Amino acid sequence: MTVMSGTTTGYTLTRELDAPVAEVWDAWTLRERFAQWFGAPLPSVELDVRPGGAWRATLVTPDGGEFPMTGTYPVVEAPRRLVTSMDVPGRAEPALLDMELAELDGGRRTRLVLTQECESAEECAAAEEGSRMLLDSLALHLAP
Questions:
Q1: Which stretches in the chain have pLDDT values below 70?
Q2: Beta bridge partners of 54
Q3: CB 3.0–4.6 Å: which of 10, 47, 49, 102 could bond 111 by disulfide?
Q4: Contact 37, 138 (CB under 8 A)
Q5: Span 2-138: which CATH code?
Q6: What pLDDT shows up at residue 2?
Q7: SS3 of 57, please?
Q8: CA 70 – CA 65 distance, rounded (Å)
Q9: Contact 89, 66 (CB under 8 A)
């Protein structure tokens, strides 16, 4: 965990993926692809990927727990940057997850950088753990 600004905490995760930027972008922005790695069954996934568009998905845990998630896309700069807001119970403002993609190895691979600011160390620890698990799942989904 790193201190981002003032009393706000946050984290940045960097992952190198064995897929071109366009494929990573599609995995985050196409409903069918998103459902395959995010852990949300298709009937629950809706993605309106445009500035101000909304998204929703119900995450299903291995033990059968269900966690409905909702938010918007404040920033969409295809295929390089996607800012996703997430409605968090008990939070006055949505949490923002900023994803940036960059080409590596002549476009054969991608560097993905996720950044999120949090309101507390506890929120940050949980969010970072969740993001690490999602990135692990994404990497497996994209593996050749």
A1: 1-8
A2: 72
A3: 102
A4: yes
A5: 3.30.530.20
A6: 39
A7: strand
A8: 17
A9: no
Six token digits for residue 39: 């852990």
Two structure tokens written together for 143: 């593996």
Q: Which residue, 124, 131, 49, is CA-closest to 91?
A: 124
How many Å apart are CA 58 and CA 65, to the nearest integer? Answer: 10
Residue 4: its pLDDT value, please?
41
37-53 pLDDT, tens digit per residue, is 999 999 999 999 999 99
The DSSP letter of residue 74 is S
Q: Which two tokens stand for residue 137?
A: 């799942």
| Residue given tokens 């069954």 in the structure block | 41
CB-based contacts of 26: which residues, under 8 Å, 6+ apart? 33
Domain extents for the chain? 2-138
Q: What is the pLDDT of residue 8?
A: 65
